[in-house]
Automatic annotation (TrEMBL), chain A:
The chain crosses the membrane at residues 63-89, 101-123, 135-157, 231-251. GO terms for cellular component: plasma membrane. Residues 63-251 form the ABC transmembrane type-1 domain. It comes from the Bacteria. Belongs to the binding-protein-dependent transport system permease family. GO terms for biological process: transmembrane transport. It comes from Nonomuraea terrae. InterPro entries: MetI-like, MetI-like_sf. This is ABC transporter permease. It is a multi-pass membrane protein.
TrEMBL record, chain B:
Signal peptide: none annotated. Belongs to the binding-protein-dependent transport system permease family. CysTW subfamily. This is ABC transporter permease. It is found in: Cell membrane. It comes from Nonomuraea terrae. Its main location: membrane. Pfam families: BPD_transp_1. CDD domains: TM_PBP2 (cd06261). Keywords: Cell membrane, Membrane, Transmembrane, Transmembrane helix, Transport. The chain crosses the membrane at residues 21-44, 78-97, 109-131, 151-172, 212-235, 255-276.
């Protein structure tokens, strides 16, 4: 009986695992096909579609734009998140309650609604699409995460360590630099990492902010797929998977992926 | 930097208020200019005609048109089915994870979370290939000598894609809930003669309810408002609210109407979430939201 349930459980877990990796595995495999259309299993093996990607300058410029905007979103989110988290956790100031209310409702507003709201607001302000407006649009998605992660990090910090350091004569900045900052370092890296991923992956908001000349990578792929069914997209997808794997390995080395998601889970 | 240095003191006095405000300023500016202002613009525009005069037409049009009522209904249906799908797949998976060694658990958790790191567009594209006419599913069906049905651009395709995207959001709270269950309860009940099923129904299932309810809430609201996966796997044939917000705003260029549809989406999803959390609170369940 118990052996049977264990066996069934194992089989079920394998099926779920297959389900989880299916779209990615199939994308990677079919990027090697020699046919001019996408098929799985792939027929023959070629790297032609990868060469194709690098011959399309619009994909390369979209990639550069996406990385630039995502790096900007990560940097601004880390700074605004750290400052905002410290302010909410340690100070009382006018607007604190409003800030907290907005912080918790930001997650409840559908991304598509934020997208169309930003479109109409930017139009009203006369702001034309630029990498800068893209960055602004992404900050709405990323800063709430960063603030919440910093708040979670601060909640776990023992204030007596700071008091001890101050009592032993450390100047305020030294206390911040040697005691407070290390305690929230994980939250900061996590916030920046999530900001990067969220911005890099975002299609919903970007669709409303981009123009034909200024498209992030997800928008470029989305538009390309509407008209073409050749395997170029599978090659791009594979490159993006590689990019994600490298990111995970780096994060695992320095922070630990589980901890990152653990911190995220507490926020839900 | 001097302002930052004062944190160790943390105080209620005037300089503390100023420091706090100064520190919060970037976040306040970001939210005021990029969250509150756009949403206010959106609400204001939804009560306007294309030329700017006040009107209730946009809402009357939405609520009066059977087509759009159908869109709203279908949005809620797909979200509910995705939630059920995530529960059916996620609950046994979380139970299985609970009994594994930390090593196996870590690997399976990584497997569960790894899709979150891969672009949503690419994942949806992957399902396009898997379910497409040249894909593995069609190949298997053909191998049995049958003609494969149209697997894409319908509710089922959206459902499969959405369960794939949302599964982690269901399993993580479930795992948290299952981990908190006292590990001696089930052996104690077994010792007193309860069957495995009885233990599951009377101990494990009720005690994991908070995780289940929290997961259901997250999955439902995120699905009802998601755009990317349904747009790619369902297209115009699958009638969902976010897709119509998009087409009204960028194809039809009727901004006031797009704003109204978006605002209805916000009201309906937050309304349902509030009702749900009130229901939970009344039921004595753990408060999981707000």
């Amino acid at each position: 009986m118990t052996r049977l349930t264990a066996l069934l459980g194992g089989a079920f877990a394998v099926l779920v695992g297959l389900f989880l990796i299916a779209p990615v595995a199939v994308t990677v495999a079919s990027s090697l096909t020699t046919t001019a259309y996408v098929t799985f299993p792939p027929q023959g093996i070629t790297l032609r579609w990868y060469a194709e990607v690098f011959q399309k300058p619009e994909f390369l410029s979209s990639f550069a734009l996406s990385v630039g905007v995502a790096l900007g979103a990560a940097a601004v989110s880390a700074v605004a998140g750290l400052a905002g988290g410290l302010a909410i956790h340690r100070y009382r100031f006018p607007g604190r309650a409003a800030l907290e209310a907005v912080l918790s409702s930001a997650f409840a507003v559908p991304t598509i609604v934020l997208g169309i709201g930003l479109l109409q607001w930017f139009a009203q302000m006369g702001l034309a699409s630029s990498p800068f407006t893209l960055l602004l649009a992404h900050l709405v998605l990323t800063v709430p995460y960063a603030v919440r992660l910093v708040l979670a990090g601060l909640a776990g910090l023992d204030r007596s360590a700071e008091k001890a350091a101050a009592g032993l004569g450390a100047p305020p900045f030294a206390v911040f630099w040697h005691v407070t900052l290390p305690a929230v370092r994980g939250a900061l890296i996590g916030g920046a990492f999530f900001a990067f991923i969220t911005s890099f992956d975002d299609l919903t908001v970007a669709l409303f902010v981009v123009t034909t000349d200024l498209q992030t990578l997800p928008v470029r792929i989305f538009n390309y797929m509407q008209y073409d069914y050749d395997p170029t997209v599978t090659a791009i997808g594979t490159l993006m998977v590689l990019f994600a794997v490298v990111a995970v390995v780096v994060i695992e080395r320095f922070v630990g992926v589980a901890r990152l998601f653990g911190a995220d889970r507490d926020q839900q | 930097m001097a302002a930052v240095g004062r944190v160790a003191g943390g105080s209620l006095n005037r300089s503390g208020r100023r420091t706090g405000l100064l520190l919060a300023l970037p976040a306040i500016l970001i939210f005021a200019l990029l969250f509150v202002a756009p949403l206010c613009t959106l609400v204001a525009n939804s009560f306007r005609t294309q030329t700017g005069a006040f009107t209730l037409d946009n809402y009357q049009r939405f609520l009066g048109d059977p087509f759009y009522r159908d869109v709203l209904w279908n949005t809620l249906k797909v979200a509910a089915l995705t939630t059920i799908g995530c529960l059916v797949v996620g609950y046994p998976f979380a139970l299985y994870l609970r009994g594994r060694s930390p090593r196996v658990r870590n690997w399976l958790a990584l497997l569960l979370l790894s899709p979150l790191l891969i672009s949503m567009v690419i994942r949806a594209y992957g399902w396009l290939v898997v379910l497409g006419p040249q894909g593995p599913v069609a190949a298997v069906i053909e191998w049995f000598g049958l003609t494969p049905p149209q697997l894409l651009y319908n509710d089922t395709a959206v459902l499969i894609g959405m369960v794939h995207v949302m599964l982690a959001y269901m399993v993580l709270p479930l795992m948290g809930s299952l981990d908190r269950i006292d590990r001696t309860l089930v052996p104690a009940a077994r010792g007193l003669g309860a069957s495995g099923w009885t233990c599951f129904w009377r101990i494990t299932l009720p005690l994991s309810a908070p995780g289940m309810l929290a997961g259901a809430m997250i999955v439902f609201s995120l699905t009802a408002s998601s755009f990317v996966t349904p747009a790619i796997l369902g297209g115009p044939k699958v009638k969902l609210m976010p897709y119509f917000v998009y087409t009204q705003a960028t194809v039809t260029l009727d901004w006031p109407y797009a704003a109204a549809i978006g605002f209805v989406l916000v009201v309906v999803t937050t309304g349902l979430l509030l009702a749900y959390s009130r229901l939970l609170r009344r039921g004595g369940g753990e408060v999981v939201f707000g």
